[in-house]
Design brief:
The complex is a heterodimer.
Chain A lengths: L1 E10 L2 E11 L4 E5 L6 H9 L6 E6 L2 E2 L5 H6 L2 E4 L11 H8 L12 H7 L1 H4 L11 H13 L5 E5 L7 H16 L3 E6 L2 H7 L2 E6 L2 E7 H5 L2 H8 L2
Parallel strand pairs in A: 3-8, 3-9, 6-7, 7-8
Antiparallel strand pairs in A: 1-2, 1-4, 4-5, 9-10
Helix pairs in contact in A: 3-6
Chain B lengths: L1 H31 L6 H16 L6 H25 L9 H23 L4 E2 L9 E4 L2 E4 H23 L1 H11 L1 H6 L4 H22 L5 E2 L3 H16 L4 H21 L4 H15 L27 H20 L2 H24 L10 H16 L5 H23 L4 H21 L1 H4 L5 E2 L5 H4 L1 H24 L1 H11 L1 H6 L4 H27 L1 E2 L6 H14 L5 H20 L3 H15 L4 H14 L1
Antiparallel strand pairs in B: 1-4, 2-3, 5-6
Helix pairs in contact in B: 1-5, 1-8, 1-9, 1-10, 2-3, 2-4, 2-8, 2-9, 3-8, 4-25, 5-6, 6-8, 9-10, 9-16, 10-11, 11-16, 12-19, 13-19, 13-22, 13-23, 13-24, 14-15, 14-16, 14-22, 15-22, 19-22, 20-22, 23-24
The chains are: A alpha/beta, B mainly alpha.
The structure holds adenosine-5'-triphosphate and magnesium ion.
Adenosine-5'-triphosphate (ATP) binds next to strand 2 and helix 1 of chain A.
């Protein structure tokens, strides 16, 4: 579904992504694990085009997207849920969803507000509430729902469990599994190993802008030394 | 009582067309974050195009409506063209350059309009139905006034529906908050911006055309309406449509009553209202605090003392300047005198803009106030030149302190818009107060006393005062006050945390800059022997900006080099062509397109790239 090949990215003169390569098969859920500042968010931003990669190849379902405009990449089927959610605070829940709406894709049934409310029941009760007056967890759900309205082939989730209460995290796990079951491929950036284990089947470890390990998440679970390596400060 | 009613209705009808223009300005600003100076030009084009369309159509009301709609559509198309060809390229440039860029467009459009439609005012021949009256409470009220009064709320309602009930409107509101996120969700920002711009331009054009039956198409519309629109948008709250509506009602009614009650002070009244609103609600009636969009802050380089080589060069230039009268003829000498005055003017603007971080689009106000103060001292109070040159900086400084008190707490765009509006108001007030200022005829015969009547002596005097003042400003920048000023510019919060009082420091800088510009104005009055309202014209303010930007905001020598280069170039330009506006405008546009980060910033970038390669 997604192939990333020797991706480089800079912020000004700081070389952040230093030749990153990985790939995700259709229908899989890959988690990108790494310490603070390892480059997880930068990777996702480079994929969606908010950071312009300096070199490297990115293909989504066979289509080259590296260096394209964010809106073109989104229309090609990449959905992006940012770390800080970036809900439109002045817009209601329904309006936030409307901004994310794109035409249906591949003849699959499109995501509708009703389907999303079934996935995130909390949102159903607050259709007309402005985004600025929602809790962090509600905003996180809305951010994911808004991106799903674009019927993405692959969704990028940047630390969706960050700062959420355990109950809400539980909720999020269910929602992401349901998303996957409906055929959306998932790329998750995480620090929370438990959350990652609950939703992902593949893992990649990123360190200083490079992928240092890539494999099934079960292998990671079975290898405490490896876990130590990326969890240790 | 009924006379009051009629006046009220007149005011309300004037407010409608003002609201249309201001609504367009505020909508465009909301999404693109560009304060579009050329919005007034679109209004002016609306008036001219409306004239051309309406005079070709039959006279019936249905044709009038068709003509207005057609004009709005043409203006919208022009706006879309302007956006795709030009404005799109400067969305990420610093604010000041954006303002300057759109001012370049104003200049070009002015000459283009003059070329297409000629210099004469074009009144619209009024069809009978446009001249008819309706009787209300025993008074005859023009029908057209009532129609205009209805159009304002109708347009407000239509815009409200558009922004809340359509997908397009929802996208626009979302983009106003976070344009990058909207793009990441698959919305083409470019198309969105172009359509928003077209809407704003259409509103501006419609506003211009609707005002036709009560006025005429003329070449002053652009700057007149943009001043009023700036005031309306600031009073209403930048980005708020209902705010713009309320504010245009307020200003419209105020102006129409002012004309009856206090004809000399209408504009001053507008300013007083604006000041009052800003003191009580710094973000306008219905505005919210402006958050700077992501990545919009611009780092400034430090201002460093000049290298010894440059200092020696400066000293040599000064010596040369001091010897100039021994060689130069009277014409060259008067050009040199003007250059010195320009130098002080630019240095004073640089003082508040560079180290102070306060961009001014109305710096000519202080220059003009100084000039008029000096002229009035000599002609009105029969004082000597010494007193005139003392009063010039004093009065200008006082005025700057008073005005600054209201505006120094405002941020970039607000400050730029309000300084411009203030300068326009001072200009118009001087124009109106014929008994004191002679109006358009100015004050003549402001000559130096016999001992300084010799061109050479006056030149030396100017040299002494200008260089001394410029050096004094420079000295202040390296004194603790200068460091404090830069600290408040770079981070107000951090400056306050170390015990600096940001507002007081800025106010002091504002006042000093005003006083220095006032001195330049005073000298100019004696050098020319007369003062005219055009001492305060917008183009003089822009001259100052260009001088500073040419030389570079970051260096102290910048404005000096800029002033000399600019005065020279401009004199050549005036000699060479009648279309100096178009040439100057095109030059500004090209400069900003070529150096979107400012000349100094662009050179810095090139240097960095060179080192990496
Ligand atoms: N806008 C920016 N400008 C300059 N440097 C940045 C910017 N954003 C991030 N960085 C730097 O890039 C590096 C990678 O940051 P990134 O946000 O991708 O890390 P991350 O893995 O997502 O970390 P976290 O777990 O804290 O979210 C960090 O060293 C960070 O300081
Ligand atoms: Mg991150």
């Amino acid at each position: 579904m997604l192939h990333v090949d020797t991706l480089h990215a800079h912020y000004g003169r700081a070389h952040i992504l230093q030749g990153l390569s990985f790939h995700i098969a259709p229908g899989c859920a890959l988690v990108l694990l790494g310490r603070n500042g390892a480059g997880k968010s930068t990777t996702l931003k480079s994929l969606i085009g908010l950071v312009r990669p300096t070199s490297g190849r990115i293909t989504l379902a066979g289509q080259d997207i590296a260096g394209h405009e964010p809106h073109a990449i989104a229309r090609a089927g990449l959905g992006y849920v940012p770390e800080d959610r970036r809900i439109f605070t002045e817009l209601t829940v329904m309006e936030n969803l409307e901004v994310g709406r794109l035409p249906p894709r591949d003849g699959r049934p499109p995501w509708t507000p009703e389907r999303l409310f079934a996935l995130f029941p909390n949102l159903a009760a607050m259709r007309n509430r402005p985004g600025g007056r929602m809790s962090g967890g509600e905003q996180q759900m809305l951010a994911i729902a808004r991106t799903l309205m674009g019927n993405p082939r692959l969704i990028l989730l940047d630390e969706p469990s960050e700062g959420l209460a355990p109950v809400i995290v539980e909720h999020m796990v269910h929602a992401i599994r349901a998303m996957r079951d409906s055929g959306v491929t998932i790329l998750l950036a995480e620090q929370n190993l438990h959350f990652a284990l609950a939703v992902a089947d593949q893992a990649a470890i990123i360190e200083k802008g490079r992928i240092t390990w890539h494999g099934p998440i079960a292998a990671l679970q079975a290898d405490p030394a490896l876990r130590e390596a990326w969890l240790a400060p | 009582m009924s006379a009051l009613l009629v006046q009220l209705l007149t005011g309300l009808s004037g407010a409608s067309s003002l609201f249309l223009v201001a609504a367009g300005l505020t909508v465009i600003f909301g999404v693109t974050r560009v304060v579009n100076f050329s919005h007034g030009s679109l209004t002016m084009l609306g008036a001219y195009i409306g004239w051309s369309v309406l005079t070709r159509l039959p006279r019936g009301p249905e044709w009038f409506i068709l003509g207005i709609v057609l004009t709005a559509l043409i203006a919208a198309a022009l706006g879309a063209l302007l956006e795709t060809l030009l404005l799109r390229r400067i969305y990420r440039a610093p604010e000041l350059l954006q303002l300057l860029f759109t001012f370049g467009i104003v200049l070009v459009v002015q000459d283009a309009t003059l070329w297409l439609w000629g210099p004469n005012d074009l009144p619209l021949p009024r069809a009978p139905w446009l001249r008819s009256f309706v009787s209300i409470a025993g008074e005859r009220v023009p029908l057209y006034d009532l129609i205009l009064i209805a159009i304002g709320p109708l347009v407000l309602a239509a815009l409200w529906l558009l922004f809340t009930r359509t997908r397009w409107g929802t996208l626009v509101r979302a983009a106003t908050e976070d344009r990058d996120m909207v793009a990441a969700l698959g919305v083409d920002q470019k198309r969105l911006f172009t359509t928003v711009f077209a809407l704003g331009a259409g509103l501006a054009g419609m506003g211009g055309a609707l005002a036709l039956p009560d006025a005429s198409a003329n070449l002053q519309i652009d700057l007149n309406i943009i001043t009023d629109a700036f005031v309306v948008v600031v009073v209403g709250g930048l980005g708020s449509l209902p705010g713009a509506f309320l504010a245009s009602l307020l200003i419209g009614v105020l102006q129409s009553f002012g004309i009856v009650l206090l004809p000399q002070a209408t504009l001053v009244l507008v300013f007083v209202i604006m000041a009052a609103v800003l003191v009580i609600r710094p973000n306008g009636l219905l505005g919210r605090a402006q958050s700077t969009a992501r990545g919009e802050a611009h780092a400034f380089a430090l201002v460093r003392p000049a290298a010894p080589v440059l200092r020696r060069l400066g000293l040599a230039a000064l010596l040369l300047a001091a010897c100039a009268p021994l060689i130069a003829g009277p014409f060259l000498l008067s050009v040199l005198t003007e250059m010195l005055i320009a130098l002080l003017f630019a240095a004073s603007l640089h003082f508040m803009m560079g180290p102070g971080g306060m961009a001014s689009f109305g710096h000519a106000a202080w220059f003009g106030i100084g000039a008029y103060a000096a002229a009035f001292a000599v002609k009105g109070l029969a004082l000597g030149m010494g007193a005139g040159l003392l009063l010039a900086p004093l009065i200008a400084g006082l005025a700057a302190a008073l005005f600054g008190w209201f505006v120094v707490r405002l941020s970039g765009v607000y400050l730029a818009m309000l300084t411009l509006a203030f300068a326009q108001i001072v200009w118009a007030a001087l124009f109106q107060a014929v008994e004191i200022t002679g109006g358009d005829n100015g004050i003549l015969g402001v000559w130096p006393p016999p001992w300084a009547a010799d061109r050479r002596v006056f030149y030396w005097l100017t040299l002494l005062l200008c260089i001394a003042s410029a050096l004094l400003l420079r000295r202040i920048l390296y004194a603790p006050f200068g460091y404090a000023l830069r600290a408040t510019r770079d981070s107000e919060r951090r400056a306050e945390a170390i015990g600096l009082h940001a507002v007081h420091i800025r106010l002091a800088a504002f006042t000093l800059a005003g006083a220095a510009a006032g001195l330049a104005g005073g000298l100019s009055a004696f050098s020319k022997g007369s003062v005219f309202p055009n001492f305060i014209s917008i183009s003089r303010s822009v001259d100052g900006l260009l001088m500073v930007l040419l030389g570079g905001v970051q260096s102290i020598a910048g404005p000096i080099v800029g002033a000399i280069a600019y005065t020279g170039l401009f004199d050549l330009l005036l000699l060479a062509t009648d279309q100096w506006r178009a040439v100057l405008g095109l030059a500004i546009i090209t400069l900003v397109l070529a150096f979107p980060h400012g000349i100094a910033g662009s050179i810095h970038r090139l240097w960095l790239r060179g080192r990496e390669a």
